[in-house]
Amino acid sequence: MTTPGSSYQPSTGGMETFNIAHGFVESLVRGMRNSFLSDSDYHHLTQCDNLEDCKMNLGETDFGPGLADESVLTPTVLQSAAISKLSTEFLYLRSQSVAPLSTFLDFITHEYMIDNIMLLLKGTMSGRDINDLISMAHPLGLFKESTMRSIPTFESNAKGYADLYQCVLVDTPVGVYFSKFLQETSQNLGSAGEVRNVLEELGAVVTQFSQYAPAWSVHTSGASKSIDDAFYERDVHQLELAFEGQMHFACFYAYVKLKEQEIRNLVWISECVLQNQKESINDFVPIFSQHAPWRVKNQRR
């Protein structure tokens, strides 16, 4: 309890004021947690014989409305619909938020903006059509169309990158990230031996950290699981924990990243169904699964 004349002021977004500013949006994202596919949903999908069966099973989930108008389901169509759904949900959360949460959510979109810029730069260097590249861009990282079309017009050299930053990227939210990078001439790794040396150096560093060492050991042990999957499993475990606490912004970031993993799962399963690779169809990382290794381990205690 404060006394008259006290200099104490509650911090914006602190425990004593968090629900006033952000409680509604937090309740929304926690409600959206129920939209993740369940263990039974994944089981039904892995039993499908064709993509039409997948569409029918997804019709009973939150993905149903987005796929209802698709006459033919393909992994690409499924991925596009899932990303569109994520984008719509995220933008709704953003529209309901106030600072500093709104700023935090804006920072989440910066990753997609950077990915889109790199997509345009690399795509045009490979001779891809700009319209095709724009259609492939992530909806959460879009700029104005004039900006998107301007990015690939600069030369692929140090001067061109500097001009790109000064003329276009400087006015974007991610311009600061490119201010140094785009003014330097990028140097690609050469031989496979150079790549191998870099990986060995990376491994020497990673193994010093207990939280990363188990995932890296998958790469060095020759296990059937890829190092990507090992890190995905670790990420899912950490991201799920964000929903165990309250009055923080981590659950918003976790929701987006877990949805990304769910989309990877759907694409993997649909590709396996399409190619009749049933022996590999279960090689995905489910979200909030009761059979997750870390959850089973805790239940045994």
UniProtKB/TrEMBL annotation:
UniProt KW Transcription regulation keyword: no
Protein's recorded name: V-type proton ATPase subunit
The keyword Ion transport is assigned to this record: yes
Organism (species): Triparma laevis f. longispina
MF annotations from Gene Ontology: proton-transporting ATPase activity, rotational mechanism
SUPFAM superfamilies: V-type ATP synthase subunit C
Domain of life: Eukaryota
Alphabetically ordered keywords of this record: Ion transport, Transport
GO cellular component terms, semicolon-separated: proton-transporting V-type ATPase, V0 domain
UniProt cross-references to InterPro entries, sorted A to Z: ATPase_csu/dsu_sf, ATPase_V0-cplx_csu/dsu, ATPase_V0-cplx_dsu, V-type_ATPase_csu/dsu_dom_3
PANTHER family documented for this protein: VACUOLAR ATP SYNTHASE SUBUNIT AC39
